[in-house]
Protein backbone atom coordinates (compact mmCIF):
# COMPACT_ATOMS: atom_id res chain seq x y z
CA UNK A 1 0.00 0.00 0.00
CA UNK A 2 1.38 3.39 -1.02
CA UNK A 3 1.26 6.10 1.64
CA UNK A 4 0.35 9.71 1.00
CA UNK A 5 3.22 12.19 1.17
CA UNK A 6 2.61 14.87 3.79
CA UNK A 7 4.49 17.93 5.04
CA UNK A 8 4.75 18.92 8.70
CA UNK A 9 6.97 20.88 11.05
CA UNK A 10 10.04 19.05 12.27
CA UNK A 11 10.13 18.26 15.97
CA UNK A 12 12.84 17.13 18.37
CA UNK A 13 12.02 13.45 17.89
CA UNK A 14 12.90 13.83 14.18
CA UNK A 15 16.37 15.28 14.75
CA UNK A 16 18.37 12.03 14.93
CA UNK A 17 16.82 10.62 11.75
CA UNK A 18 17.09 13.93 9.90
CA UNK A 19 20.77 14.21 10.87
CA UNK A 20 21.46 10.67 9.61
CA UNK A 21 19.78 11.37 6.27
CA UNK A 22 21.60 14.71 6.01
CA UNK A 23 25.02 13.05 6.43
CA UNK A 24 24.16 10.47 3.77
CA UNK A 25 22.55 12.76 1.17
CA UNK A 26 24.19 16.16 1.66
CA UNK A 27 27.90 15.64 2.42
CA UNK A 28 28.73 19.27 3.15
CA UNK A 29 31.51 20.41 5.46
CA UNK A 30 29.18 20.48 8.48
CA UNK A 31 27.74 17.07 7.61
CA UNK A 32 31.20 15.54 7.53
CA UNK A 33 31.67 16.62 11.16
CA UNK A 34 29.02 14.05 12.01
CA UNK A 35 25.50 13.26 13.18
CA UNK A 36 25.94 14.59 16.70
CA UNK A 37 27.10 17.98 15.42
CA UNK A 38 24.16 18.17 13.01
CA UNK A 39 21.77 17.12 15.77
CA UNK A 40 22.94 20.05 17.89
CA UNK A 41 22.41 22.42 14.96
CA UNK A 42 18.91 21.11 14.17
CA UNK A 43 17.99 21.23 17.86
CA UNK A 44 19.17 24.84 18.02
CA UNK A 45 17.07 25.74 14.96
CA UNK A 46 13.97 24.21 16.57
CA UNK A 47 14.42 26.35 19.69
CA UNK A 48 13.29 29.54 17.94
CA UNK A 49 10.30 29.02 15.61
CA UNK A 50 9.89 32.79 15.20
CA UNK A 51 13.28 32.83 13.44
CA UNK A 52 13.46 29.38 11.83
CA UNK A 53 11.24 27.12 9.79
CA UNK A 54 11.98 23.39 9.72
CA UNK A 55 9.72 21.17 7.64
CA UNK A 56 9.82 17.50 6.77
CA UNK A 57 8.11 15.53 4.04
CA UNK A 58 7.05 12.10 5.23
CA UNK A 59 5.04 9.09 4.22
CA UNK A 60 3.82 6.80 6.96
CA UNK A 61 6.67 6.85 9.48
CA UNK A 62 9.41 7.50 6.88
CA UNK A 63 11.06 10.91 6.57
CA UNK A 64 11.55 11.60 2.86
CA UNK A 65 12.97 15.12 2.79
CA UNK A 66 13.78 18.24 4.80
CA UNK A 67 13.88 21.98 4.30
CA UNK A 68 15.02 24.43 6.95
CA UNK A 69 15.18 28.18 6.60
CA UNK A 70 15.67 31.33 8.57
CA UNK A 71 13.99 34.69 8.16
CA UNK A 72 17.21 36.40 9.28
CA UNK A 73 20.52 34.73 8.49
CA UNK A 74 22.44 37.32 10.53
CA UNK A 75 20.60 36.33 13.74
CA UNK A 76 20.82 32.62 12.96
CA UNK A 77 24.58 32.79 12.41
CA UNK A 78 24.96 34.63 15.70
CA UNK A 79 22.96 31.93 17.53
CA UNK A 80 24.88 29.07 15.92
CA UNK A 81 28.25 30.66 16.70
CA UNK A 82 27.37 30.47 20.39
CA UNK A 83 27.14 26.67 20.28
CA UNK A 84 30.59 26.31 18.72
CA UNK A 85 32.26 26.72 22.11
CA UNK A 86 30.44 23.76 23.68
CA UNK A 87 32.95 21.05 24.69
CA UNK A 88 31.05 18.34 22.81
CA UNK A 89 31.11 20.35 19.60
CA UNK A 90 34.81 21.13 19.95
CA UNK A 91 35.40 17.39 20.45
CA UNK A 92 33.35 16.48 17.33
CA UNK A 93 35.14 19.02 15.15
CA UNK A 94 38.52 17.82 16.47
CA UNK A 95 37.63 14.19 15.79
CA UNK A 96 36.46 15.03 12.24
CA UNK A 97 39.77 16.82 11.62
CA UNK A 98 41.79 13.95 13.08
CA UNK A 99 40.02 11.39 10.89
CA UNK A 100 40.35 13.65 7.81
CA UNK A 101 36.59 13.97 7.31
CA UNK A 102 37.16 17.72 7.05
CA UNK A 103 40.22 19.93 6.77
CA UNK A 104 41.09 23.24 8.35
CA UNK A 105 41.18 24.95 4.91
CA UNK A 106 37.61 23.71 4.25
CA UNK A 107 36.40 25.15 7.55
CA UNK A 108 38.20 28.46 6.95
CA UNK A 109 36.86 28.67 3.39
CA UNK A 110 33.28 28.00 4.52
CA UNK A 111 33.49 30.54 7.36
CA UNK A 112 34.98 33.12 4.98
CA UNK A 113 32.23 32.51 2.43
CA UNK A 114 29.55 32.87 5.12
CA UNK A 115 31.06 36.19 6.27
CA UNK A 116 31.12 37.45 2.68
CA UNK A 117 27.52 36.37 2.10
CA UNK A 118 26.37 38.15 5.25
CA UNK A 119 28.25 41.30 4.24
CA UNK A 120 26.52 41.32 0.83
CA UNK A 121 22.96 41.35 2.06
CA UNK A 122 21.22 43.50 4.65
CA UNK A 123 19.33 41.98 7.54
CA UNK A 124 16.79 40.48 7.59
CA UNK A 125 18.06 37.98 5.06
CA UNK A 126 15.72 35.01 4.51
CA UNK A 127 17.57 31.95 3.35
CA UNK A 128 17.28 28.21 2.99
CA UNK A 129 19.71 26.60 5.43
CA UNK A 130 19.33 22.93 4.49
CA UNK A 131 17.29 21.30 1.77
CA UNK A 132 17.43 17.68 0.70
CA UNK A 133 15.34 14.69 -0.28
CA UNK A 134 16.55 11.21 0.62
CA UNK A 135 18.00 9.48 -2.44
CA UNK A 136 15.34 6.77 -2.96
CA UNK A 137 12.62 9.44 -2.95
CA UNK A 138 14.16 11.99 -5.32
CA UNK A 139 12.49 12.97 -8.62
CA UNK A 140 8.99 12.58 -7.17
CA UNK A 141 8.16 16.27 -6.63
CA UNK A 142 8.95 16.18 -2.90
CA UNK A 143 11.48 19.02 -3.10
CA UNK A 144 8.97 21.18 -4.96
CA UNK A 145 6.34 20.47 -2.30
CA UNK A 146 8.75 21.31 0.53
CA UNK A 147 9.74 24.60 -1.15
CA UNK A 148 6.08 25.47 -1.73
CA UNK A 149 5.22 24.74 1.91
CA UNK A 150 8.11 26.92 3.06
CA UNK A 151 7.02 29.77 0.78
CA UNK A 152 3.51 29.68 2.31
CA UNK A 153 4.99 30.20 5.79
CA UNK A 154 7.17 33.18 4.87
CA UNK A 155 5.77 36.70 4.67
CA UNK A 156 4.47 37.48 1.19
CA UNK A 157 7.07 38.87 -1.22
CA UNK A 158 9.94 37.74 0.97
CA UNK A 159 13.00 37.39 -1.21
CA UNK A 160 14.44 33.95 -0.51
CA UNK A 161 18.11 33.12 -0.94
CA UNK A 162 20.07 29.89 -1.00
CA UNK A 163 23.69 29.04 -1.58
CA UNK A 164 25.05 25.85 -3.05
CA UNK A 165 28.50 24.63 -3.94
CA UNK A 166 29.81 25.74 -7.33
CA UNK A 167 30.50 22.07 -8.05
CA UNK A 168 26.89 21.01 -7.29
CA UNK A 169 25.46 21.35 -10.80
CA UNK A 170 22.47 19.13 -9.96
CA UNK A 171 21.30 21.53 -7.22
CA UNK A 172 22.00 24.58 -9.38
CA UNK A 173 19.85 23.16 -12.18
CA UNK A 174 17.07 22.32 -9.72
CA UNK A 175 17.02 25.85 -8.30
CA UNK A 176 16.97 27.43 -11.78
CA UNK A 177 14.11 25.13 -12.82
CA UNK A 178 12.14 26.24 -9.75
CA UNK A 179 12.36 29.99 -10.24
CA UNK A 180 15.67 30.90 -8.63
CA UNK A 181 18.30 32.94 -10.45
CA UNK A 182 22.02 33.25 -9.82
CA UNK A 183 23.06 36.43 -8.04
CA UNK A 184 26.77 35.79 -7.76
CA UNK A 185 29.51 33.38 -6.84
CA UNK A 186 31.39 33.87 -3.57
CA UNK A 187 34.26 31.51 -2.88
CA UNK A 188 33.05 28.00 -3.69
CA UNK A 189 29.36 28.94 -3.31
CA UNK A 190 26.82 30.11 -5.87
CA UNK A 191 24.14 32.39 -4.41
CA UNK A 192 20.61 32.14 -5.81
CA UNK A 193 17.52 34.21 -5.09
CA UNK A 194 13.83 33.81 -5.80
SSE order and pairing:
Elements: E1 5-9, H1 15-25, H2 29-33, H3 35-46, E2 52-59, E3 62-70, H4 73-83, H5 87-98, H6 104-120, E4 127-133, H7 142-153, E5 161-165, H8 169-177, E6 181-186, E7 189-193
Antiparallel strand pairs: 1-2, 2-3, 3-4, 5-7, 6-7
Keywords:
194 residues, alpha+beta, 4-stranded antiparallel beta sheet, globular
Description of the molecule:
- Strand 2 and strand 3 (62-70) form a beta hairpin.
- It is built from 8 helices and 7 strands; from the N terminus they run βαααββαααβαβαββ.
- It is of the alpha+beta class and 194 residues long.
- The strands form 2 sheets. Strands 1-2-3-4 form a 4-stranded antiparallel beta sheet, with helices on both faces. The protein has a 3-stranded antiparallel beta sheet with strand order 5-7-6.
- Helix content is 46%, strand content 23%.
- The chain has a domain at 5-139.
